[in-house]
TrEMBL record:
<feature type="signal peptide">
    <location>
        <begin position="1"/>
        <end position="24"/>
    </location>
</feature>
<dbReference type="Pfam" id="PF01547">
    <property type="entry name" value="SBP_bac_1"/>
</dbReference>
<keyword id="KW-0732">Signal</keyword>
<dbReference type="InterPro" id="IPR050490">
    <property type="entry name" value="Bact_solute-bd_prot1"/>
</dbReference>
<feature type="region of interest" description="Disordered">
    <location>
        <begin position="29"/>
        <end position="48"/>
    </location>
</feature>
<keyword id="KW-0813">Transport</keyword>
<protein>
    <recommendedName>
        <fullName>ABC transporter substrate-binding protein</fullName>
    </recommendedName>
</protein>
<dbReference type="InterPro" id="IPR006059">
    <property type="entry name" value="SBP"/>
</dbReference>
<comment type="similarity">
    <text>Belongs to the bacterial solute-binding protein 1 family.</text>
</comment>
Length: 487
């Protein structure tokens, strides 16, 4: 997601990408032509597969450490550089790189940059220095790079039978992820790397408490169940807000992270549920309608049952409120699960997981793509294939990178270790709107526009319809400046 970083970096360089798209596109064509034919000389010599012992992770012995026998040390002496943001993604890539180096003979350097500057640094390099062979970035940014010709189509490499792993299994990727994260204008510009979907976390202990059920029935005339609809969510949020119900065992009925990088998701979690979208297929705003208005009014109503400091809550602050046992329900990204189930959590073993009420959660996600300017396209492709393979996906879970492949959600060892996974899989198949509007070059700017207006509505400074009018006008102006909007 673009949300937690300096979201203006992409805008600063968007015009540079557009201007350089022709040159970058030429580099892409050259590399793809080589990918469809025979592999290069480093791959010609018949060599036995290099034996690499895989680790045991979550009770699963990892065995496909040589990419189905296609890595035989044949890339010895070659090097690639992979760029991403510092933190969990960096750690996961470095873990996988250690095994890849043993199997391939190559050197993999993972370069990472702080959250506040990684976007502009990586984008500038793709356009000018061209030292990065691969990048792992949020989906909307990858699509912007694809529009500018800075990353290339992976299909020619996949079609090269001498190169591709027999265990690639494209159909094992969750279909919605392969489509949304990977495909762009008829090309497969990336492999899905890290899935994200807003999840509905709730205190199952209090939802299942007979006293709470009896009290809810007495107050509302309805049964207390895990909310599936927005209306049920509002009723439960009101009931569990202590200022309105002194018998509530928690302080707040609802919470989420909603500072000026994240408040829009309270709205988008219901926008699709009510039949709306942020952007249509022609890059035109599609939210200034009944669905958008209804979803924004719902966000206003829901915030009445949240902490007063809701609009200042970032990731850590919001999660702490929940893990301290002060909140009945929370919508958050999957990473909350590990904090909620940690030994320090006051709600360990008391948390349930469900699809966000309305059944159309907001999706985030990161993808892994190949630079159009790489001088080692085969090696780069093999690394991307490797780190997104079924077994290596299990390795990255240790660094909060959940699987993108359906089969990994079916592994009994992982289902036991991560009780949220069935819900996450369900949510990933139902998500319809991305956390950042999928508009090349200007996604961060559109984020800012949404945040400015939605924050104003939630503070009571702007009426919902006026906010939608303002957002639509600004969206049209910003998107028109890119020249990609269809008339």
């Amino acid at each position: 997601m673009v949300n937690m970083m300096n979201r203006r970096g992409l805008m600063l360089l968007g015009s540079v990408i557009i201007a350089g798209s022709v040159m970058s596109g030429c580099a892409s064509s050259k590399n793809e032509a080589g990918a469809g034919g025979k592999t290069n000389s480093s791959n010609e010599a018949a060599s036995p597969a290099v034996k690499v012992e895989g680790p045991e992770v979550y009770g699963i012995k990892l065995t496909d450490m040589d990419a189905g026998g296609t890595l035989k040390g044949q890339y010895k002496g070659k090097k690639i550089v992979v760029a991403t943001m510092a933190g969990d993604t960096e750690k996961a890539l470095k873990d996988a790189a250690g095994y890849f180096q043993k199997a391939s003979g190559a050197t993999v350097e993972v370069q990472s940059f702080p959250a506040e500057s990684y976007m502009e640094k990586i984008q500038l390099d793709l356009q000018t220095n061209k030292s990065f062979d691969a990048v792992v970035m949020p989906v909307a940014l990858i699509h912007g790079f694809a529009e500018g010709g800075l990353v290339q189509d992976l299909k020619p490499y996949i079609n090269n039978k001498d190169l591709v792993s027999p265990n690639l299994a494209l159909d094992d990727f969750i279909p919605s992820l392969l489509d949304i994260y990977g495909n762009y204008k008829g090309k497969l510009v990336a492999f899905p790397y890290k899935p994200d979907s807003q999840i509905f976390f709730y205190r199952k202990d209090i939802f299942e408490d007979p006293k709470m059920k009896e009290s809810f029935k007495a107050k509302t005339g309805k049964e207390l169940t895990v909310p599936q609809t927005p209306e049920e969510m509002l009723a439960a949020a009101k009931f569990f807000t202590k200022s309105l119900n002194p018998d509530s065992p928690v302080t707040y009925g609802y919470s989420t992270m909603a500072d000026n990088t994240a408040s829009r998701w309270i709205w988008t979690n219901r926008l699709a549920a009510f039949g709306g979208k942020d952007i249509d297929k022609d890059f035109k705003p599609a939210f200034n309608n009944e669905a958008g208005l209804k979803a924004l009014q719902f966000a206003v109503d829901l915030s009445k049952y949240a902490p007063k400091e809701l609009l200042t809550l970032h990731w850590d602050e919001a999660n702490t409120l929940f893990t301290n046992g002060e909140v009945a329900m929370m919508e958050q990204w999957p990473g909350l699960m590990q904090a909620a189930e940690s030994d320090k959590s006051k709600v360990k073993g008391k948390v349930g997981y469900a699809v966000t009420p309305g059944g159309a959660p907001t999706m985030g996600g990161w993808s892994a793509a190949m630079s159009s300017a790489t001088k080692n396209p085969e090696l780069t492709y093999k690394f991307l294939e490797y780190v997104t393979s079924k077994d290596l996906e299990v390795l990255k879970i240790k660094n909060n990178m959940d699987p993108t492949r359906t089969s990994n959600y079916m592994r009994p060892e992982l289902k036991k270790q991560f009780p949220m996974y069935p819900t996450l899989l369900d949510s990933l198949t139902k998500g319809k709107i991305l956390a950042d509007p999928d508009v090349p070059f200007v996604s961060p700017k559109l984020d800012d526009i949404m945040e400015l207006n939605i924050q104003s509505v939630l503070r009571g400074e702007l009426q919902p319809q006026k906010a939608l009018d303002s957002m639509e006008k600004s969206f049209n102006e910003v998107i028109a400046s890119t020249g990609i909007m269809k008339q």
